[in-house]
């Protein structure tokens, strides 16, 4: 019996058209229905590689790395100042899965600034925070608050060095009253010193020393 060869089934044309329509590798500019705009690289119709995203509603802009549609890698996020109409940088650093992760710098209102590590969009790890009143905290962070070991320096140069928990002094620590020339060393709980000793420390050089020195035991 002779062997009959049937013609090979051809792929529907729309499959080929769909492949050609896929944004992959090259840079494209795409406008969303809500007015958002993205210009950059793509992979399988997802933002992937280098790109710039502009959100129309609040005028925010992200420029940096993308991975499968999410901010991932190194990039900067800025917002539009409604008064000056210029972009103000909010965050520059590393991202993972659309959240701050790794080392980065964030600029807050009132000239506050954080430099350090992030995890899941929260300050976690080592970091330094500059506050609006001139004080500065440097040390460990946990879930967006000081947690672990750290140092808080106040505007008058007085400082606390020791343990922290939930953003408050907690555990063994030292408070240097440099303006009075005294040092308190003891145990803290929820920002309150529970027990310890107070001694003179650099009292001669202090700008406003206590009236009477603490007698030695």
TrEMBL record:
GO cellular component, one term: acrosomal vesicle
Cited Gene3D superfamilies: Histone H3 K4-specific methyltransferase SET7/9 N-terminal domain
Biological function: Assembles a suppression complex (suppresome) by tethering SIRT1 and MDM2 to regulate composite modifications of p53/TP53. Confers both deacetylation-mediated functional inactivation, by SIRT1, and ubiquitination-dependent degradation, by MDM2, of p53/TP53, promoting a proliferative and cell survival behaviors. May play a role in the regulation of spermatogenesis.
Pfam families (alphabetical): MORN
Primary localization class, coarse: cytoplasm
Localization terms from the record: Cytoplasmic vesicle, Secretory vesicle, Acrosome
Name the record gives this protein: MORN repeat-containing protein 3
Domain of life: Eukaryota
Biological source species: Cepphus grylle
Residues passing through the membrane, by range: none
Protein keywords: Cytoplasmic vesicle, Repeat
């Amino acid at each position: 019996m002779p062997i009959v060869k049937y013609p090979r089934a051809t792929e529907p044309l729309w499959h080929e058209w769909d492949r050609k329509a896929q944004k992959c590798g090259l840079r494209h500019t795409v406008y969303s229905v809500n007015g958002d705009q993205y210009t950059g690289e793509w992979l399988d119709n997802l933002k992937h590689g280098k790109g710039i995203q502009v959100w129309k509603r609040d005028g925010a802009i992200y420029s940096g790395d993308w991975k499968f549609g999410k901010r991932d890698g190194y990039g900067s996020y800025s917002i539009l100042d409604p008064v000056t109409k210029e972009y103000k940088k909010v965050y520059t650093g590393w991202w993972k899965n659309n959240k701050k992760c790794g080392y980065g710098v964030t600029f807050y209102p009132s000239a506050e600034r954080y430099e350090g590590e992030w995890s899941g969009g929260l300050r976690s790890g080592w970091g330094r925070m500059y506050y609006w009143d001139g004080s500065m905290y440097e040390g460990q962070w946990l879930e967006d608050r000081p947690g672990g070991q750290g140092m808080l320096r106040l505007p008058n140069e007085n400082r606390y060095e020791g343990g922290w928990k939930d953003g408050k002094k907690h555990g063994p620590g030292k408070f240097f009253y440099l303006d009075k020339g005294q040092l308190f060393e003891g145990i803290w709980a929820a920002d309150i010193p529970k027990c310890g000793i107070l001694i003179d420390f650099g009292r001669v050089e202090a700008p406003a020393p206590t009236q009477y020195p603490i007698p030695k035991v």
